[in-house]
Design brief:
The chain is of the alpha+beta class. The protein has one domain. The radius of gyration is 14 Å and the shape is globular.
Length: 131
């Protein structure tokens, strides 16, 4: 893993580069607050929890929380040194290699990780994507 290159990528990634749909904006707004231990763990990999590559939301659950089934993040370098981990936080969250993910068009060595499961309060007013 190239943690310094991963940190650089997230430092240079602008908010405008992220998806602007309501589901993603809700994730960006709430993830770090709801999951401080996961946030801290991802930082050890160079990853910024508030800049997901993909969020994968479902529908609001009976408690009014939005489940995300595997938010994904890019990590630079080789997978060597990465190991699946379970982080104890609001609930147990598994950090693992993503088995599938959207194309990313990145030409340098990298891999995609995902965190699972994530449940966030719904605090974004609108439910449609920003136009």
């Amino acid at each position: 893993m190239d943690i310094e290159r991963t940190k650089q990528f997230y430092r240079e990634l602008k908010q405008s580069d992220l998806c602007g749909c309501a589901y993603c904006r809700n994730y960006v707004k709430e993830a770090a607050k709801a999951y401080p231990a996961v946030t801290a763990y991802l930082q050890t990999l160079g990853v910024d929890i508030a800049k997901p590559f993909e969020t994968m939301p479902l529908e609001l659950d009976e408690d009014g929380r939005m489940p995300y089934i595997g938010p994904q993040y890019l990590v630079f370098g080789a997978e060597a040194g990465f190991a699946t981990a379970t982080v104890k936080d609001a609930n147990d969250v598994e950090v693992r290699l993503a088995q599938s993910h959207p194309d990313d068009d990145i030409q340098e060595p990298h891999f995609v990780i995902e965190i699972f499961p994530i449940f966030l309060p719904w605090t974004v007013e609108e439910t449609k994507a920003k136009q």
